[in-house]
Amino acid sequence: MKAVVQRVLEASVSVNHQIIGSIKKGYLILLGIRFDDTEQDVLFLSRKIANLRIFEDENNKLNRSIKDVSGSILSISQFTLYGDTSDGNRPSFSEAAKPEVANPLYALFNQTLSEKHNIPVSTGIFGSDMTVHLVNDGPCTIILESRK
After folding, report:
1. Which residue range(s) make up the domain with 134?
2. What digits encode the pLDDT tens for the residues 11-67?
3. Which residue out of 79, 109, 112, 123 is catalytically annotated?
4. Is 55 a catalytic residue?
């Protein structure tokens, strides 16, 4: 499981020109799910994100978590994070999980952040063509993986 975590001042996602999710201060997360990911990957990555300290404290040090700043998360499923272009210019997505595997893990990821870590979560619609708008804060972008 791979997450691109972008610290944002605000972010929103639209489907068919309708905003379906939006947040103010927090994280925009692009989440890629690999074919062999499990619930353990979800638990690891959600805990890591909930405790990630990339918000500034009073001394301008990256020392506060999303919970410390009462932030929210906009979570977007993005299988293209597992695009492999090592054998040419057209990406292969063979490492990305099929929808029947990825969708339940994506839902569990969002539910875990919301219920276990008490972070408000907005989402896109799994498998939809979405338009994402964001205002980066910093910018500060961190890439996390559940396994190396």
Report:
1. 2-145
2. 999 999 999 999 999 999 999 999 999 999 999 999 999 999 999 999 999 999 999
3. 79
4. no
* CATH code at position 75: 3.50.80.10
Instruction: Assess whether 78 carries a catalytic annotation.
Output: yes
pLDDT over threshold 80, residue 148: no
Candidates 30, 134, 125, 40; CA nearest to 81 is 30
Domains held by the chain: number: 1
Which candidate in 40, 80, 111, 131 is catalytic?
A: 80
Q: How far apart are CA 28 and CA 6, in angstroms?
A: 5
Q: Answer yes or no: are the C-beta atoms of 130 and 13 closer than 8 Å.
A: yes
Task: Single out the catalytic residue among 78, 109, 112, 123.
Answer: 78
Phi, psi torsion values for 93, nearest 5 degrees = -110, 30
